[in-house]
Amino acid sequence: MPFKLVEAEDYVRIPPSEFGKPLEDIALAQLKARYENRVVREVGYVVAVLSVKVKREGKIIFGDGGTYHKARFTLLAFVPLDGEVVEGVVENVREVGMLVRIGPIVGFINKIHVMDEPNIFFDASTKSYIGERTRRRVSVGDIVRARITGVSFTTPREGTDLLLRVTMTMRMPGLGKLEWIKEREKKAAPAKKA
């Protein structure tokens, strides 16, 4: 999985009610609320704020009783990469495609990219796809291996958080439901002589 540590800088406001308390504790709480579980375009999906160092000298802004301090902090971010092969759990199967959890985010696989079959049928009663030729089935809860085919950042509406969209495919050799991959590997392995 594509996790990375990122060094960042920002300002934190220390309200007068917090004066005398450890700056790092106050800053860490603020930065966690500001960044965790959010998408930052230059960083990716922020999983956690791990540590922070705060400058002791702060700035005062006229009309505001708080002080503003520069903070350097470390983020743990999830950054999916175009072309990367990932494994995930199928969370939902719909007529148009399925949602697969990869790490802390959910990626989308269009119905035509679920398996290498001429026709794929959607079974609404079991929330699964079934291949016409092989009768293979992929359902909610299955573990699959897929290749990321697209990563984009979008803002759905003015004033909303940035979203990270990931599209994937399972229509390549070595991809698909893990059971299918294991079956192919067994068939491809040379038979051992007794």
UniProtKB/TrEMBL annotation:
<dbReference type="InterPro" id="IPR036898">
    <property type="entry name" value="RNA_pol_Rpb7-like_N_sf"/>
</dbReference>
<dbReference type="GO" id="GO:0005737">
    <property type="term" value="C:cytoplasm"/>
</dbReference>
<dbReference type="InterPro" id="IPR045113">
    <property type="entry name" value="Rpb7-like"/>
</dbReference>
<dbReference type="GO" id="GO:0000428">
    <property type="term" value="C:DNA-directed RNA polymerase complex"/>
</dbReference>
<dbReference type="InterPro" id="IPR005576">
    <property type="entry name" value="Rpb7-like_N"/>
</dbReference>
<protein>
    <recommendedName>
        <fullName>DNA-directed RNA polymerase subunit Rpo7</fullName>
        <ecNumber>2.7.7.6</ecNumber>
    </recommendedName>
</protein>
<dbReference type="GO" id="GO:0006352">
    <property type="term" value="P:DNA-templated transcription initiation"/>
</dbReference>
<comment type="function">
    <text>DNA-dependent RNA polymerase (RNAP) catalyzes the transcription of DNA into RNA using the four ribonucleoside triphosphates as substrates.</text>
</comment>
<keyword id="KW-0963">Cytoplasm</keyword>
<keyword id="KW-0240">DNA-directed RNA polymerase</keyword>
<dbReference type="Pfam" id="PF03876">
    <property type="entry name" value="SHS2_Rpb7-N"/>
</dbReference>
<comment type="subunit">
    <text>Part of the RNA polymerase complex. Forms a stalk with Rpo4 that extends from the main structure.</text>
</comment>
<keyword id="KW-0808">Transferase</keyword>
<dbReference type="Pfam" id="PF00575">
    <property type="entry name" value="S1"/>
</dbReference>
<dbReference type="InterPro" id="IPR003029">
    <property type="entry name" value="S1_domain"/>
</dbReference>
<keyword id="KW-0548">Nucleotidyltransferase</keyword>
<dbReference type="InterPro" id="IPR004519">
    <property type="entry name" value="RNAP_E/RPC8"/>
</dbReference>
<feature type="domain" description="S1 motif">
    <location>
        <begin position="83"/>
        <end position="171"/>
    </location>
</feature>
<comment type="similarity">
    <text>Belongs to the eukaryotic RPB7/RPC8 RNA polymerase subunit family.</text>
</comment>
<keyword id="KW-0804">Transcription</keyword>
<dbReference type="GO" id="GO:0003677">
    <property type="term" value="F:DNA binding"/>
</dbReference>
<dbReference type="InterPro" id="IPR012340">
    <property type="entry name" value="NA-bd_OB-fold"/>
</dbReference>
<dbReference type="GO" id="GO:0003899">
    <property type="term" value="F:DNA-directed RNA polymerase activity"/>
</dbReference>
<dbReference type="InterPro" id="IPR046399">
    <property type="entry name" value="RNApol_Rpo7"/>
</dbReference>
